[in-house]
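Progress against Task 2.4 (sequence-to-structure conversion) is shown through the following example record, which the project officer requested during the mid-term review.
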Amino acid sequence: MNDLEPFARLVQALDPWRQQLVFIGGWAHRLHRLDARANQLEHQPVFTRDTDLAFANKEGIEGDIKSALIGHGFQEALGGDHTPPVAHYTLGQEEGGFYAEFLTPLAGSGIKRGGKPDATLAKGGIVAQQIQATCQHAFGIVLS
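Structure tokens generated for the chain above:
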């Protein structure tokens, strides 16, 4: 699968939020290799079919990211038992195709007062999965 075109569409859709979103995971490693200052490694970067984007949960996000994604051909796919449900923003109909998901740090214990998991957060029109920070430094790429 050639995922450069879908990735470019994602970047275009998210342009207004480029100072608030960070590409993490497999795409961060792939993008880093494109920088002339990066060490040239013999092995290929990790390939994943998803694009992970992170944002700070305590910062405001103006505008509607979901509408921007839909305007660029993405569809919201909801799943899971959480409230709000986990969301993937998919491009195309093919099984195993390109999608984006949003992540944000978990603040607190991960359990709401009623005993339900505090696993997702709605912000800026999208739903992000809240993740426990397990390391002090993460590798991410901010597009400027």
